[in-house]
Amino acid sequence: MTARRLYLDDAPGERRGVVTLEGRPERLLIQRSAMPSPVAGEQWAARVRRIDRSLATAFLDLGQGSETLLNLTGDALRLTEGALISVDITSPARRGKGPVARFNGLEEGQPRLLAPAPTLEAQLKALAPQQEIITGPLAREVADLAEAQVLAVEHGLPGGGSIAIETTRALTAIDVDLGARGGGDPRRAIRQANLAAISQAARLIRLKGLAGLVVFDLIGKGQDGEATMGAVKAAFEPDQPGLVIGPISRFGTLELALPRRQAPTAELLCDEDGRLSAESLALRLMRMAEREGRADPGGQLVLTCAPAVAVAAETFLPDLAARIGPRYDLQPFAEVASPLSYDHLDVKSR
């Protein structure tokens, strides 16, 4: 059985859960104090606002201006506009798309939250029930590594070579590069690189929260189809049910369709331009301040960052104060007058 380990980093304003697979991050679950509802795992009483039979979709009102989509299948096909129903949020909102719900049954009353999402601890335990959750400095180190791998495009492969994972509006493309992988038999080296790429890509796709159409550009042509398909089924087994695997094309590409169960992790971490958001940088600053504050229990901390990051940090300062005391001075630098960049963060004791 492949070893998985569970980690939970509890930081000011943010909790990050990580599942590792053979020592490498496989999943990154993030809960922030300012995350908007609805989130995956919540149960809601929702009003059917509109039904579009041509799209087999119902548009649901959750109250307080929140909406979600419901695919009309099974018993949901009999729903009518105005009905109040119970739904589970199966996929949160992502960039350009609203949240998606699953029909449970009829409900009474008004639109409202019926049950919150499972705790981060419960979500982690569901992924590796026999494992204890590791906390403390090691958990923070693992969470930081997981976050860095979410944001990276190129990833090395065991034994040499690399894969590049890039997303577009239509699909996720995975390019496999043989690199400096050695070996006297080129065909054997290519086969090993392709199999390693499939294994690592499956882990990284789960880590990055990617779904939909995935296309592998494998090395060479005329791959060992049986071995390749066996590797794909084994590597992507945790993504069942709902995974669809296509055959290897004559161009050496392999296509998969993965069910969407979460928003891409990078969307939570980054703005639309791909750089870390002010909120993400503010949370990094809080972790830096907490670490420095515990290292110097009596020191007064000076926190330096860009003005936009300082604005975002205001939300998390009460949590920081509850952990180390109100002994910090937040000082945004002047962006025009300073050579410091938007993502420059600094914490010093004085």
Structural commentary:
With 350 residues, the chain is α+β, with helices and mostly antiparallel strands. A hairpin with a 4-residue loop joins strand 4 and strand 5. Helix 3 packs parallel to helix 4 and helix 6 runs parallel beside helix 8. It is built from 8 helices and 19 strands. The chain has 4 domains: 57 residues, no CATH class; 73 residues, Beta Barrel (OB fold (Dihydrolipoamide Acetyltransferase, E2P)), CATH 2.40.50.140; 114 residues, Aminopeptidase (3-Layer(aba) Sandwich), CATH 3.40.630; 79 residues, hypothetical protein PF0899 fold, CATH 3.30.2320.
What structural category arises from helix and sheet content?
A: alpha+beta
H/E element order: EEEEEEEEEHEHEEEHEHEEHHEHHEE
Number of helices: 8
- Helix % is 25-40%
Order of strands across the biggest sheet? 11-12-13-14-16-15
What is the straight-line distance between the termini?
Answer: 51 Å
For the sheet with most strands, the description reads: 6 strands, mixed
* Estimated share of beta-strand residues: 25-35%
The tally of strands reads 19
Task: Domain count, please report it.
Answer: 4
- The top-level CATH class of the largest domain is Alpha Beta
Name the overall outline: globular
Overall pLDDT metric: 91
What name does CATH use for the topology of the largest domain?
Aminopeptidase
Characteristic key phrases:
alpha+beta; six-stranded mixed sheet; globular; Aminopeptidase; single chain; 350 residues; OB fold (Dihydrolipoamide Acetyltransferase, E2P); five-stranded mixed beta barrel; 4 domains
